[in-house]
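Researcher: Next sequence.
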Amino acid sequence: MDKTKLGSIQIHNQDDVCTIMFSHPAHNSLPGKLLATLADAIETAGIDPSVKVIVLKSGGERTFCAGASFDELIAIDNMETGKKFFSGFANVINALRKCPKFVICRVQGKAIGGGVGIAAACDYTMATKFAAIKLSELAVGIGPFVVGPAVERKVGVSAMSQLTINATELQSAEWAKQKGLYTEVYDSAEELDAAIETLTEKLVGSNPDAMRLLKKVFWQGTEHWDDLLAERAAVSGQLVLSDFTKNAISKFKAKA
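Model: Next structure:
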């Protein structure tokens, strides 16, 4: 079975809130096709006049997002394909950045690699105590080049460096909260959902123009990210072609 064709994006609009949920049987990993659909869903919700707030979440209980699809990564055999794949994460991050509405992120479980980047690129990220994080890219011979700017913007250079260098160790949800990635950590998914509902109800009643202008302020200084993340995608696309990286990915995939 071709796992790169699995997964889904579900969109639900209710009471001025658009909930976008992505899911994939391989721990909510994100192959290129799913990344493209996710970016489109965020952009569409951003221009929908009936939507005031967006909630981004994933399916399942213990993993928010395992990052890149290893099946797709290991199949990359040329620079163009590699850059295109990593541009998928770049496009999602830029869609979140440029969306004129606040995006609230629900992180119910572990976030790995690109999953950390997505959580960092949202405007307000709330999690459960099970939502440990790890930037595993260096462990498979690459590096968090594409997601790095979003993560660094949230947690700073020091914490970003720690995550990048210690690529095999999970950091707790509480650690992520202390560093500024998560705004709050809850004991259960039920408590998390209740808190998200309370927040979105407040935001729905807020001035849409004020929220739009505030988001511009929050993201000031990132206007060059379209070019930056494209450059970073090219770097990752080159690295993934090396024998070192292909062997590392194969070993990592065998353990998964």
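Model: Residues 12 and 19 are 5 Å apart (CA to CA). The radius of gyration is 17 Å.
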